[in-house]
TrEMBL record:
<feature type="transmembrane region" description="Helical">
    <location>
        <begin position="228"/>
        <end position="251"/>
    </location>
</feature>
<feature type="transmembrane region" description="Helical">
    <location>
        <begin position="365"/>
        <end position="392"/>
    </location>
</feature>
<feature type="transmembrane region" description="Helical">
    <location>
        <begin position="536"/>
        <end position="560"/>
    </location>
</feature>
<feature type="transmembrane region" description="Helical">
    <location>
        <begin position="157"/>
        <end position="184"/>
    </location>
</feature>
<feature type="transmembrane region" description="Helical">
    <location>
        <begin position="330"/>
        <end position="353"/>
    </location>
</feature>
<feature type="transmembrane region" description="Helical">
    <location>
        <begin position="299"/>
        <end position="318"/>
    </location>
</feature>
<feature type="transmembrane region" description="Helical">
    <location>
        <begin position="257"/>
        <end position="278"/>
    </location>
</feature>
<feature type="transmembrane region" description="Helical">
    <location>
        <begin position="80"/>
        <end position="100"/>
    </location>
</feature>
<feature type="transmembrane region" description="Helical">
    <location>
        <begin position="494"/>
        <end position="516"/>
    </location>
</feature>
<keyword id="KW-0812">Transmembrane</keyword>
<feature type="transmembrane region" description="Helical">
    <location>
        <begin position="425"/>
        <end position="446"/>
    </location>
</feature>
<protein>
    <recommendedName>
        <fullName>Integral membrane protein</fullName>
    </recommendedName>
</protein>
<feature type="transmembrane region" description="Helical">
    <location>
        <begin position="112"/>
        <end position="137"/>
    </location>
</feature>
<keyword id="KW-0472">Membrane</keyword>
<dbReference type="InterPro" id="IPR029058">
    <property type="entry name" value="AB_hydrolase_fold"/>
</dbReference>
<keyword id="KW-1133">Transmembrane helix</keyword>
Amino acid sequence: MNRDRQLPEDGTLTHEVVELRVHGVSGTTAETLLDHPVVIRVAGDDNAGFYRPRPGFGISDRPGGLKVEAYRWGALTAGAAVRTLSLLFLLPFMLVNLAVWARPATGGAGGLIGPLCRLLAATLTAAFVLSVVGVSIDLVGWQCVGYQPCRAGRGYLAWLGSIPLGPRLAILALLPIAALRLLWWLGARSSRAFEAFPAMPGQARDALGEDRIDEPGFWNDAIVVRRLLTLHVAVGLGILDTILLGAQIHLRPTPVVYVLFGTAWCLLAIAAVLLCRPARAIDEGPGRGPVDMRGVRRLRQATTVVTLLALAYTVVPLEPEPPHGQLPGYEGAVAALIAVQAGLLIALTVTTWNQRRRSRARTPLWLGGLAGPLLATAAVAAAYGFAAALVYRVADFLDRSDIPNPARPDRPGAPPLEPPVSYRWAALAGLAAIMVVAIAALWRIVATRRRRRRMAEQIVRRDFPDPPPEALPQRAAVREVVARAAFTEQLGPIFIVFLVLSLLGVAIVALDLIGVGPSELSRYLARTDGQATTNLSLVTDVGIYVIGLVAAGIVVLGLASYRSEGTRRSVAVIWDLGTFWPRTVHPFAPPCYAERAVPELAKRIGALARRGGVILSGHSHGSVLAAATLLQLPPEVLPRVALLTHGSPLHRLYSRLCPAFLGDDVLYEIGDRIGWRWVNLWRDTDPIGGPVFSAHWPGQPPRVPPPAGTVDRRLRDPVEVTVPPDDTVPPRIDQHWPYHTDPQYEAAVRELAGRLDPDLLHLSRDR
């Protein structure tokens, strides 16, 4: 209604307007964000705070009454070391939690996608427990300690050899419990530290779910996290119980152990049913709380009792026959779990595809709307890749670097350290996926290079039509930067290849249900001879080493991020994308920083709007936080707010990856709520940011008419390819950062300040 209003000719505002800057991924200092040498914190704390230039030091504020403030939230996502460790150990949990947020937009609650993702998340917890069980109970307690050659020279294992088998297994069962308790502690601690942050008055959640991002209290899912924590601990303990009791059935079958075994399976089934039900809350009252938390707590108590009884039954020192081979039932449990995951992944893919056909998305979705199944499949693949590397490396260590397989038969008197065949399949599938995806990525780079360069050439010719001869090398450099930035849109086929290979790999791994490994299958189907079988075994060993190198590479990447800003930003992009959404699927995923950042921003904007106007300026991922914040503001605050986004991935990434929550319909709704007081700045050289509504390719008209068609404003980067008269080098290519130093940024701020309604601002100040 006031889009044409500008600042007065003298540049002086008749009302107080604060430009509130929100940084993007990898964080930055408040001094850099404000372009000021000395700043003071005016609200918040060390984890996330609001800063202003300190008066008396440099230029504190712009002339004319326009003030500037910065929101620094980077400490919420922790440091490079924590990010690296989380990417390594919590990556599967983070990916499966992200999968549910990538569902197509159908206008509903997601149908079966939520329950399927929650069940898949529970199987990842079970896989985590099984991997620790495989190392502690199977390899160490059952296969290694009972043999003198394995204990020789290892005092830390010798004491276990003097303990009867039952007590030994019970003692080693404490390791999976401790690992599960560590994950519980991390989840509960992060929930207290970052999540459940108080929202603005009137924004308390009245229903728990993930239907709309503008729901009151959407970013307060503490109850959901607590519920999931309880259920996942119950699942982890139930898996441990079934393994222990299954082994006891093999050693000394009695009616008691059969009853306990059946009870453990019943409790796992109850946990699965509860996971299929979304958490719902009722009005709090005396002695009342969430509807289904009572049942969840009772499940946890029952599982704890069964675990104690299982440990008590296992610890009875009845010496059975010496163990041979693997822990009874363990390999079958791993194979059965992978088969269940394969079925869930197929069901998730089919369900997502059906919902995609009913999608209301206006623009093509990333991967045709199959981003959710891709992320879930990647979570399963990462989980079993890391599990296979862990189990085989421990077996390699225990049998002194001599893993038995057809290429290296057991030595006389050596322990039969045989990890499950499923892990050998996982190693082979992981090696194949890594190699094929790497080849596909190289092919995609080469295949699209000519088209990207042709597009980039059109851009640089339009921006720099007649450069002098000495500026041609700089113009060529700009063309290459633009061509590289356009590669983001070419990643789809690579991920499709990964999705197909991973689904095929998970399905093949389930062949272990019938005891068939890679070597056996090659003999049965291809009628290969012994040498071919040996070579295939060597290839699977290579897969184990490659997966281990990938894990080591993640650690190296984290260490490198301390020294390299570019590397740190790349790691931060993955981290901040994965931890932006609430943990409604897996409670052991890294904490959701937005559950504090969004309500905190909303509260601060509400306070500033009572004194005047606010220009919310979000860079990169900060623009996503800004959009989510605007959707949480009360209606009476919105007329006093304008939005400035720059380097924004709102459409280029989030609208296509998470269409149900930040799709085009939601972006149009944001514009309507703030009266289209919105300017979006973008560059062709930016590999992350882009336009929100207009066409990206040069020479094309906007896709939509005004007012949405006037939001996007392209910045030329660099401003020139020739050397300025007062400089010695050409202007730098800014790409993704910074934007706020561009003169057009300042012009956009002043334009938005003038478009804020002075009458409303005076009214708010008088109140």
